[in-house]
Amino acid sequence: MDNQISRRGFICAGLATAAGVAISAPPAEAAGGIIILRDGRVEVEISKFKALAKIGGALLVGNVNNIPTALVRTGKNSYQGLDLRCTHQGVTSKLISGSFKCPAHGSEFTKTGAVKIGPAQVGLNKINTEVAGKTVILG
User: Which residues contact 6 (CB under 8 A, 6 or more apart)?
Assistant: First the structure.
């Protein structure tokens, strides 16, 4: 019997192995300081991001439990997560010149999430935020 493996067999075995590794991989890690936890929450290592070095600094974190999220330093040891979906029609706001601005209809929000310019009538929703030593956990 011939013990050689076909090219197709080799590729299929490689793909199956890669799929098994991906399924058993530890929680995802991105940007060298953001870890997506198994429960969907996100852990941010504060010292890895210059934007969080001073009060008022903001970091676009990405999705936390499928919600586009920013993290804002609000005090010496306090932080607030913000849901970036505009409260007018749900379009994701962008961080532009120190404010969160909705590209759809022009609503603008302060870094604390308060409405600065409408048509939105209420501020951005808060994301549960927990300071744990040198990290912040969102979600």
Answer: none
